[in-house]
Amino acid sequence: MAFLKPYLPTLAEPSRIPVHGVPAPRTKLSHAPWKRVTHFGHKAHFLAASLMILTAKRTKRCASRQAQESATLPPLQRLQRSLRFYSAIIPVLGQYIFRPWLRTLGVEKMGEDELIAEMDDWGSKRLQEALLDLGGFYVKTGQVLSTRVDLFSKPYTSRLRILQDSLPPVDAESIREIVSEELCGGGDLSELIRELDDEPLGTASIAQVHRGVLNDGREVAIKVLRPHMEPVLRGDVANLKLFALTLRGRLPVDYYPVFCELERALDGELDFLSEAQSALKVAASIRHNALGKELEAPLVVPLPIPGMATRKVLGLRPSAFQDAVSRPLLRFDIARCKANSYHEATMSNQKWVEPLQTEELGIDLGSSAGKALGRRILEALTTAYGRMVFSSGFIHGDPHPGNIFVLEGGKVALIDCGQVAQLFREQRLLVAEAVLAAAAYDGSRGMIELLAKCVRKFGVTFFEGQADEDACAASVALYLFGEKDVVFPGGYSKEEFSDKSPLRQLKSFPMELVLLGRASVLVKGVAARLDVAWSVAKKWAPLAKDAIAALCSEDECRLPAWALSSAAHQGASGSRLRFRDAARGCAALVRRWGTEKAATILTSSSKEKSKD
Q1: What is the largest CA-CA distance in the chain?
Q2: Phi, psi of 323 (to 5 degrees)
Q3: Residue span of the signal peptide, if any (predicted)?
Q4: 3-state secondary structure labels for all residues of 313-327
């Protein structure tokens, strides 16, 4: 601060404030013009110095906070979290070996089915409590497990669904401090926001969302990054990488490269400026087909409000949150039970009950109305992801049910564009060929070789020693895009934990294929959960044909959907004008007119008084 010393006034010598480095004369202020100018110069330099001091302090405070946020966990804390994870997971896994062994010795008296049910019930409770307690990236791992109804029993998938949107929230005061620092420079929130609800609309592993009202009356969904999460997440990924490396060859897939890629993807999830840009790209992608034609969006993507995006705070148009019946897709599996809420039902000691009805909408999923709703949800998701893949190659990479909302009238919304992937021209062509081959798969050797060729070109490699590597590669493609009842070639199994799973033979595969696989597996999982027959390959086949026609054109290289001129002219993607929005806009105009009219009257009266 030494460079500021010449500009700082002292109480002892108020007239010695320098102007442009020259000390002012030791004279009292008078009404002489030059002295009045000098006095104003003193004030200007004093204000400038004060602002420089405040800016320097704020910059130092922000730099210190940013350093704390981006720092990695100390080794001791990482070790503690790792030990807590292992102490919870080892008993869960170990019981499936130890207790059946005790049963063969006659120590366990239960029947096989009863024993498995009890182990699943105890193991799912223990795992849920451990993941909730640890938080961080372990929660994201639990979110993925909760969507795999084809692999894990109902107690696991049901209890782990709470990890998708119902985590313990950060206190409201901390949230207000973060929003104030990011959007108002540490000042009062009233500069920008009239209301900010203390109760969050949803809580997740990285952020939570609060409803707010701007000073002009617009509602906004404000997404806030959880404080001090970055070092925890990065430490957890390092632990999970070590876990995957230790169990390499014993898990159905080599998860080490997956966690390495997810570690790199964290940069986008922890930066809401990047997420705001991604949301615009996803919204543009689902509104165009592969030929560049603009169509109606199959679902809603909440878009960022201009100017309300920083690294830690993101203001969104609340398309997915303002409907009275808006609910995450995961809530459609909640049964009517004695507990007062989903959270209480999950955390209580009572056994989990079989999901029967959609409590919020009062629709029985087994009825014709429930089936129609299920098909509408699947149609929206399948069409949206098909357009993402083939119109631009820009894919929303985190499609767990907590990020999918069902709105009024069965409309679907897709939120949280933090984790994305970009498929480029050659990759999109390979996906198109693989989808068409999977849709037409007949078990012939030619089809197997075609699918294997697409998989290898995508960058997938396999461990050596395969009896029929083409069959293994083709089975991977069929796992991603094939029919529900398709038979894998070469005797490979669709069960991931089977020794004959083709996924066990994977040596490496690109992150883009992982995220694309998550999308296709999600749609299959939702179809299984809603008990609706559905084929991803057949639904995507027309889009794949258009993509091949568009991308292989010799006349021109088509722009991706997000780069088209029509992509810039979009409102809230997939939304329609509502009466309440129109009324709110009219009210804002009336208020503005009234304010300006009152200002004009006051100005006129002031002028008249000055003339008098």
Answers
A1: 109
A2: -70, 145
A3: none
A4: EEEECCCCCCCCCCE
Q: Measuring CA to CA, which residue among 190, 193, 195, 225 is closest to residue 209?
A: 225
| 264-297 core/surface letters (b: 16 or more CB in 10 A; e: else) | ebbebbbbbebbbbbbbbbbbbbbbbbebeeeeb
Measured CA to CA, the distance from residue 350 to residue 334 in angstroms comes to 14
Burial status of residue 128 (CB atoms within 10 A of its CB: 0-12, 13-18, 19 or more): buried
Instruction: Determine how β-strand 313-316 pairs with β-strand 219-225.
Output: antiparallel
Instruction: Specify whether the CB–CB gap between 205 and 143 falls below 8 A.
Output: yes
The strand pairing partners of 344, in sequence order, are none
Tell me what pLDDT residue 459 has.
Answer: 87
- Which pair of structure tokens corresponds to residue 396? 């929303």
Q: What is the 3-state secondary structure (H, E, C) of 117-182?
A: HHHHHHHHHHHHHHHHHHCCHHHHHHHHHHHCCCCCCHHHHHHHHHHHCECCCCCHHHHHHHHHHH
For helices 469-481 and 445-457, angle between their N-to-C axes, nearest 10 degrees: 80
Q: According to the model, what pLDDT value does residue 554 have?
A: 57
DSSP string over 479-506: HHHS-TTPPPGGG--S-TTSTT-GGGGE
Rg, the chain, Cα only: 30
Q: Among candidates 320, 312, 345, which has minimal Cα distance to 170? A: 312
Which of helix, strand or coil describes residue 87? helix
Structure tokens at 542: 């027309």
Residue 346: the pLDDT is: 32
Q: How confident is the model at residue 233, as a pLDDT? A: 82
Q: How far apart are CA 386 and CA 474, in angstroms?
A: 21
Pick the closest to residue 561 from 268, 293, 346 (CA basis).
Answer: 293
pLDDT in tens, 584-601: 556 666 766 676 666 666
Helix/strand/coil percent split, the chain, to 5 = 55, 10, 35
Compute CA distances 288 → 291, 359, 548, whole Å. 8, 35, 15
Residue 28 is classified by DSSP as -
Distance CA 61, CA 69 (A): 12
Q: Residue ranges of the chain with pLDDT lower than 70?
A: 1-73, 144, 147-151, 164-166, 249-254, 258, 261, 319-366, 497, 553-557, 568-589, 591-593, 595-612
Mean model confidence pLDDT for the chain: 75
pLDDT at 80: 81
Look at residues 156, 533, 162, 532 and name the one whose alpha carbon lies nearest to residue 365: 532
Residue for token digits 């568009």? Answer: 550
Tokens of 359: 């409590």
Q: Is the Cβ–Cβ distance between 195 and 162 less than 8 Å?
A: no
The dihedral over CA atoms of 521, 482, 406, 285, expressed in degrees to the nearest 10, equals 90
DSSP class of residue 354?
P
Q: Which of 449, 454, 484 has its CA nearest to residue 469? A: 449
Q: Read off the DSSP letter of residue 388.
A: I
Distance CA(431)–CA(513), nearest Å, equals: 9
Strand 357-358 with 394-396, pairing = unpaired
